[in-house]
Specification:
The complex is a heterodimer. Helix content of chain A is about 25%, strand content about 30%. Chain A is an alpha/beta fold. Chain A folds into two domains: about 10-185, 3-Layer(aba) Sandwich (Rossmann fold), CATH 3.40.50.620; about 205-325, TPP-binding domain (Rossmann fold). Chain A contains eight helices and 16 strands. By secondary structure, chain B is α/β, with parallel strands linked by helices. Chain B has one domain (about 1-210): HUPs (Rossmann fold, 3-Layer(aba) Sandwich), CATH 3.40.50. Helices cover about 25% and strands about 30% of the residues of chain B. Chain B has seven helices and 14 strands. In chain B, β9 and β10 form a beta hairpin. The longest helix of chain B has 16 residues, at about 35-50. Chain B starts with a strand and ends with a helix. Classes of the chains: A alpha/beta, B alpha/beta. Chains A and B meet through α4, β6, β7, β8 and β11 of A and α3, α4, β7, β9 and β10 of B.
Chain lengths: ~325, ~260
């Protein structure tokens, strides 16, 4: 039986159908390494478990759990996590705040009566243990939380941790898991998303160009994509633009959509309702272009342009392209 | 078929939301409270099924402070047949664990077929209550559904995840959560609002449910610190005189953002 480090932080990562770990993995190991020794639990389909990537990302030790029943939704992961915690006795458990991660954290915490710190943007350690940091109400408040006792189950917001851990030599073993037999929903089929665009994903993007109702139509919304491609940015939208049918809901930035904390956020034709600001006001640099000089977006813009976006943006694109040469 | 829909009263995201800097709890005086929109969509899904399937019972369940009945009334006015309001001073500042335990205890009292919730609330944004309920109630869980089909003994739907879309199904009883992709709620009409006044609202305390807030066996999440972040201040604002695109390009390049 392996001796695990006394300051182990259990990092739970899913292997995708492609065999690669989920995109949140580097940030999870980066966060874990700052407060202890990262130990990985890799959840994988049968035959798809590999320790190599987790070790490169900073796991000092890797436990591999290949699900006995790939069509059972969620429950095998909870069983694996329970077995891993039993062995590793970690100081904290870090899981991505993704849909699957939230399910896993919630089910595991309910089963083991552990405390949850949800949607953290970072972790630290004090004399008594691991503390989770949160940004709540759309970034208006900073809050820290922890568990009254026992290892807290912390879900980490995707794209919120920039730190990366140093690679470790590969040390791994297969985790023995006793199935709980809890009822599970079935995954009847799976359609892999085909990357239709080379644009970065909105969640976790370093730069975002977002459009609002000011774009006027679905056809004219293409201008947002053109500027995004010039900058290598992701495309976002206000709820008004989504409701008007200019762009699918998955691009919505705001309280009821995606929250972004990008280096650069360019808001085109977005008035800046509180609902929208709640999803982007933690961006480092905010640029706004709007024809209404009273638009609330200007209150938080580092650089505001009062003008017609259909004139300013094409000029901006050609100016940027000219400088690239 | 008995469907239980979870609804939550939240501060309106179209107004300023405040935390009390001493207690770390939501400042309910500071903002308007509304029924969380995702909960309304969950209720709409249940009501649409009930409209087409006679004999379907739809009940709303809410854990909220005393007097926070607007949410429940709206649910009843939309068409839910009954409501349960869990209210107890000991639930003030309850963490996810205590909240889930309490809701599960209330759901366990009735023979349910389906529990429908929103995927994530606009205030707490934890999105874990459905998973915790499924575990505590010992039933299958299907979260984040962007489309849902309910049949006599089963529920199925599409579940978008990081790498693609799953088609999932579960036998009833089950817990599901839905996304914003589902249809928005109906408006309560005058008849619905009048009828809601006669519908039963059961009010429960922790003692009624046999739940103790300070169970020593359960670890709780506690807030250590809370601080207000300074707002993002306004910077330069220029009016386009025909060269704003050029100027903005300069700004982005100077700041290494292009």
């Amino acid at each position: 039986m392996t001796d695990f480090p006394r300051d182990a932080i259990l990092v739970v990562v899913e292997a995708q159908a492609s065999g690669e770990l989920e995109k949140a993995a580097p940030g999870l190991f980066g966060a874990a390494a700052a407060v202890g020794t990262p130990v990985a639990l890799v959840l994988a389909a049968p035959g798809a478990g590999s320790a190599a990537e987790a070790a490169v990302l900073g796991a000092a030790h890797v436990l591999i759990a290949e699900t006995p029943d790939p069509s059972a939704l969620g429950v095998p992961s909870v069983d694996a996590l329970a077995a891993a915690v039993e062995q590793v006795q970690p100081d904290a458990i870090l899981i991505s705040h993704s849909l699957n991660g939230r399910d896993l954290a919630g089910r595991y915490a309910a089963r083991s009566r552990a405390a949850i710190s949800a949607d953290a943007i970072g972790v630290s350690r004090d004399d008594e243990g691991v503390v989770a940091h949160h940004s709540v109400y759309g970034g208006a408040y900073n809050v820290t939380s922890t568990s009254t006792f026992g290892a807290p189950v912390i879900t980490v917001r995707q794209g919120s941790v920039d730190a990366r851990a140093t690679a470790q030599p590969q040390a791994s073993e297969t985790l023995a898991v006793t199935p709980s037999g809890k009822p599970a929903a079935r995954i009847d089929s799976f359609e892999e998303a085909v990357a239709a665009t080379s644009r970065p994903e909105l969640r976790g993007a370093a730069k975002v160009v977002a459009g609002g109702r000011g774009l006027g139509s679905e056809e004219q919304f293409a201008l947002v994509g053109q500027l995004a491609d010039t900058l290598g940015a992701a495309v976002g939208a206000s709820r008004a633009a989504v409701d008007a049918g200019y762009i699918p809901q998955s691009h919505q930035v705001g309280q009821t959509g995606v929250s972004v904390s990008s280096q650069l956020y360019i808001a085109l034709g977005i008035s800046g309702a509180i609902q929208h600001r709640a999803g982007m006001q933690t961006a480092k640099t905010i640029v706004a272009i709007n024809k209404d000089s009273d638009a609330p977006i200007f209150e938080i813009a580092d650089y505001g342009v009062v003008g017609d976006l259909f004139k300013v943006v094409p000029q901006l694109i050609s100016a940027l392209e000219a400088r690239k040469k | 078929m008995k469907i239980i829909v979870l609804v939550k009263e939240v501060p309106d995201t179209y107004g300023d939301r405040k935390l009390n800097l001493e207690t770390g709890l939501a400042d309910r005086e500071a903002s308007e409270t509304v029924i969380d929109e995702i909960g309304e969509r969950a209720l709409e899904l249940a009501l649409t099924y009930a409209d087409a399937n006679e004999g379907t019972e739809v009940a709303v369940l809410s854990l909220a402070p005393e007097g926070a009945t607007a949410t429940i009334r709206k649910g009843l006015a939309m068409g839910a047949g009954s409501a349960t309001h869990i209210s107890d001073e000991a639930l003030r500042g309850a963490d996810l664990g205590l909240t889930a335990e309490t809701l599960a205890a209330a759901i366990r009292r009735v023979e349910f077929d389906l529990v429908i919730t929103g995927n994530v609330s606009t205030d707490g944004s934890g999105g874990m209550i459905p998973a915790m309920l499924a575990e505590l109630l010992d039933v299958p869980l299907a979260t984040g559904l962007s489309s849902v089909q309910i049949s006599d003994g089963a529920v199925s739907g599409s579940r978008p995840v990081e790498s693609g879309v799953q088609q999932v199904s579960a036998t009833l009883p089950a817990v599901i959560s839905i996304t914003e992709a589902l249809p928005g709620p109906r408006f309560p009409n005058f008849k619905g609002i009048m009828a809601a006044k006669k519908k039963p609202v059961e009010v429960l305390t922790l003692a009624d449910l046999g739940v103790t807030a300070d169970n020593p066996d359960a670890a709780r999440s506690i807030m250590l610190t809370v601080a207000e972040k300074p707002p993002h201040a306004a910077g330069v604002k220029i009016i386009d005189e025909g060269d704003a695109g050029e100027k903005l390009a300069d700004f982005l390049i100077e700041n290494r953002l292009a």
